Amino acid sequence: MILLIIFFTLVACSVSQRVNTDSTRQFEQDLILNSVIKDVNFTFVRPYLRCNILTVHDLTDDDINFILNNAKALVTLENMNQIGQSVNWNIEISRFEIIINTDKDKEHKYYSKYFKSYDTTDKSPENIEAYQIWYKE
Fold first, then answer.
1. In a domain, 102, yes or no
2. pLDDT tens digits for range 16-75
3. What's the domain count of the chain?
């Protein structure tokens, strides 16, 4: 019985929700204007927000910089809080991920975090990145 409760709790925590807010729609429109970008989708899987981008061919450094610069403009505390509220998530979104897939089956992954550590109960300034640092996976 306890195993069933744990199983259903884990399944409930990993429900994927499509995200569609003013800020994500604007980000998508800005990227689609770049002829390299084919499709942009946002999903929220607790506690992460993922942006999946499909491109028409492999990316240049300029293309990647274009995507990341637009992502940095999107991933503000205000926008992330609005996105969290849109999916009934009332605490900080722990991580924003960009996964870029090309038609040549290449994948580029980048992410930014709210917390420096995995301890989301530590709200001290020393543990807050607030999406300011970007990492390549």
1. yes
2. 999 999 999 999 999 988 778 999 999 999 999 999 999 988 888 999 999 999 999 999
3. 1
